[in-house]
Each structure stands twice: as C-alpha cells, then as structure tokens.
Amino acid sequence: MSLLETFKQLHQDMPEKYKTLSREEMEHRVREIKEKFGRKLFIPGHHYQKDEVIQFADAAGDSLQLAQISAQNKDAEYIVFCGVHFMAETADILTDDHQKVILPDMRAGCSMADMADIDQTERSWKILQDTFGDTVLPLTYVNSTAAIKAFVGKNGGATVTSSNAKQMVKWAFAQKQRILFLPDQHLGRNTAYDLGVPLDEMAVWNPRTDSFEYEGDLEKVKVILWKGHCSVHENFTVNNVENVRKQYPDMNILVHPECSREVVGLSDYAGSTKYIIDMINEAPAGSKWAIGTEMNLVNRIIANHPDKEIISLNPYMCPCLTMNRIDLPHLLWALEELEQGNIINQIIVDETTSQQSTAALARMLQTV
Hints:
Rossmann fold; six-stranded mixed β-sheet; globular; 3 domains; four-stranded parallel β-sheet; 15 helices; single chain
C-alpha cells in the first residue's frame, strides 16, 4: 500500500460543525473534557504550536522530551499529541501498549522529515557501502520518520537531538571513519564544523539524483550530509543578519543550528530550542535579541519577556505551516470523539520498526 493510500485510509475529515464554533465554545468544551478524563488524558504540545492549542498542553517542550514525558505518564491512556507526525510516532514507540497516541490532524507533518524516505535511504546506503565499504555509520536527527530511525538502528547508528548532536557525532566517529547524517544537512554541517571537521571534508548526498554534490577526492570525506533541510530555518539568510547588524548594532543574534552554516557563522549564539529559551530566560533585563527560529515560539518568547527587546531575525517569517495544522477545532474534535468512545487519527508504529527505532534511541540515551 502506498503512503498516499495509507493516508487516505487513516485520515478522516473534521466535521464542518467545528468550523462554526466560537473560540469560547471550543475552549469551554476542551476544559470540560480534560477535567472529565483527568489523568487518563495527556496532551503534549510542541513549542511551535499556536497559543490557542499550547494553552491546553499538560507539558510543552521539544519532540523527544514530550515523547519521553508521555512514556513516563503511565496513568495516561490517551496521548493527544499536538505536534507533527514523526513526533507522534516517537511517542508511540516509547509508550506502553495500553497507551494510544492520537494526532488531531493527520496532515500535520514535517517537510524536513519527509525529505528522507526509506526507499531513497536504502538505495543510497547500498551506493555508500559500495563507495566507502564498511566505514560509514548512520546518524539521524530525531526529526525523522520512524522508518528512518529504524534504518539507523538496524545499521548500528543512533538518533541525535539538536542539544546532543556534538556528543553523538563524537560517539559516531569513535565507531567508524565516516558518518551519514540524516535528514538535515545544516545541523549535520554546523555540528561537524564546530567539532573541527573542515567543510571540504563534508559532502552532500542528493537522494534525488543518487549522487554526491562534491568536488574533490571522495576518500577525504568524513561527513556525508543528506540533502534535506528545515523549510522554516532555511529562510533565515545572511541578508537578515546584515540588516539586523546595520539597524541594531548592539543586538545579540541567536539562531537554531538548523539554519545554514553561513547564518550560524555570522550569529552570536546558536543552539537548540531549549538553548534559545534558556538563553532568553537568563538574559538580563534591557538586553536586545534577534532570534532565528519558528515564529510561534518567537512571539511567545516576546510576550513572556516584556523587559527585553526581542525581534525575529527575519521580520517576514511565517509560522511553520505543517506545525500549524493542529488548531483548536481539530483538538476539540479529537477530544470529543474520545469522549464518545471513538479513537480517530491513531498513530501506530509496527513492532519491528519500533524495536529497531528503540535501538537507535537507546544508543543515544546511553551515550549522553
């Protein structure tokens, strides 16, 4: 069955009535249902969610953190995950069999995760093995599908987060001569560069053409970067940095390492979402910041820190479109169906994929 056929089979359209309810009506009903279910219901909300959704989150955080919190909450029978598909998959992998993971809108995906599908990866791996022999270890960002995590686990590799990427790349180089970094080339490049790997020892692998984007002797290559990227973070540019430097010369520039190497290199600080939040929390009153990350989060940081001058590094940036699929109507729909005994949009990862993905996650958790 194709991915499209699977989606059509699993996806249900939200009834029209939810589009006509007022925000007040929807908020009232969500509160009622949460109170009714109590600890049997757990709603994790990713940092990039809209305020109308994040207000109902029992925990807010990054994707892996939320999946781990969900797994620890043994009382929760229903995990209504406000994020994107790969995050709900990770939650299903880590939670117990009696816990059911629900994604309020099945269209909530991640363009970066979708840039590495398993067929491309298996085909590419064979070519890399033919080219380099048994000298390559795969690593995947947790922002990847369960199938990619499973591939990495099956081949001795591990997952990484933006917080622990440096530790995991060091670990990988202790295992093998080279690494394949999936699916975000920018996080892979920035991490390896910070660890002292020269740019001319990194090659981009283009899965569409099954070829390297690299000029030079392939024997020199230590890092193979999958040609994928975050559609949000790639929209922060060198021009954005230069404009802030010109207009606000005393402003700190703080970006996520999913931004390009050029943008990270020109910024004052770069780090994970947690790093960004912590940096602003600890910054003194009156400090000035231009932040290069998703707009819902930036707006929330601005609202939470009126004592600081904070702007988006790109003033024309929009929120992540796929992350914004989860809205208040879809959340209420999922909860009202639960109230009626119906489970819609359940995310189920098969046993083999779960076991292999768990191996990749376990190697990371044992290392950091």
